[in-house]
């Protein structure tokens, strides 16, 4: 009997409580925070390419008198490094001039036309802007206005130019032979441009540096109206005693 009465009381309480619960407003959704910047998440840096692995070393034998060794950074610019390796192994760079060389700034080369408008037959390379700075000895990909227009041309920095950082793809660094870079003839274009005699990848077992053969001096042009120099007189035979 007591159990039946308790059950009836519980049922009655539930009937009276139901309308009260129904009248309670639904909980509001949390509003997004305002004026709070999202944290910037940077991709983790991978280990730098080995500076002793011959596959990562580019040799430039220059007409200025020696070999320049460039450490190629496959960790930050793998596509541009692969392009330079491909062209080097095709002997593309052999004999090309440094066509734009600005004192206190950089030396630019890698253009088969020699005027800054040329490139290789291969497609352009997309930008690989990275954290490496444009300091002395940095090797960076030259490009046109389009950030994805790098191809075969590159420049070597004489003095820091940090305003170029993250606007051009740094893909290497000179680790030996910077004096031969400093000796590159200045000019836009230079009157007597310095050249890349040969380019090699160290892993291919290149020969030791050999200076370019001397260039023969051109014969002087004849002056209009000038008389030819007289021929020396033939020696007279000695008188017999």
Automatic annotation (TrEMBL):
PROSITE patterns: CSA_PPIASE_1, CSA_PPIASE_2. Residues 66-206 form the PPIase cyclophilin-type domain. It catalyses: [protein]-peptidylproline (omega=180) = [protein]-peptidylproline (omega=0). Residues 208-231 have a biased composition (Pro residues). CDD domains: cyclophilin. It comes from the Bacteria. Residues 208-241 are annotated as: Disordered. InterPro entries: Cyclophilin-like_dom_sf, Cyclophilin-type_PPIase_CS, Cyclophilin-type_PPIase_dom, Cyclophilin_A-like. Keywords: Isomerase, Rotamase, Signal. Its EC number is 5.2.1.8. PPIases accelerate the folding of proteins. It catalyzes the cis-trans isomerization of proline imidic peptide bonds in oligopeptides. Belongs to the cyclophilin-type PPIase family. This is Peptidyl-prolyl cis-trans isomerase. It comes from Sphingomonas qilianensis.
């Amino acid at each position: 009997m007591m159990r039946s009465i308790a059950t009836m009381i519980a049922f009655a309480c539930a009937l009276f409580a139901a309308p009260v619960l129904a009248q309670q407003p639904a909980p509001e959704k949390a509003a997004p925070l305002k004026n709070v910047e999202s944290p910037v998440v940077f991709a983790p840096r991978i280990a730098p390419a080995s500076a002793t692995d011959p596959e990562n070393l580019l040799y430039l034998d220059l007409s200025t008198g020696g070999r320049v060794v460039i450490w190629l950074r496959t960790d930050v610019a793998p596509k541009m490094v692969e392009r330079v390796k491909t062209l080097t192994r095709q002997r593309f760079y052999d004999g090309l001039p440094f066509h734009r060389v600005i004192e206190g700034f950089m030396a630019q080369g890698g253009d088969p036309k020699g005027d800054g408008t040329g490139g290789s037959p291969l497609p352009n390379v997309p930008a690989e802007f990275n954290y490496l700075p444009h300091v002395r000895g940095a090797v960076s990909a030259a490009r046109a206005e389009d950030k994805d227009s790098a191809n075969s041309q590159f420049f070597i920095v004489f003095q820091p130019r940090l305003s170029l950082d993250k606007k051009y793809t740094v893909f290497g660094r000179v680790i030996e032979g910077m004096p031969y870079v400093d000796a590159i003839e200045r000019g836009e274009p230079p009157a007597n441009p310095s050249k890349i005699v040969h380019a090699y990848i160290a892993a291919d077992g290149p020969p030791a540096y050999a200076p370019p053969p001397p260039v023969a001096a051109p014969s002087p042009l004849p002056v209009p109206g000038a008389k030819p120099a007289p021929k020396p007189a033939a020696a007279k035979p000695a008188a017999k005693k």
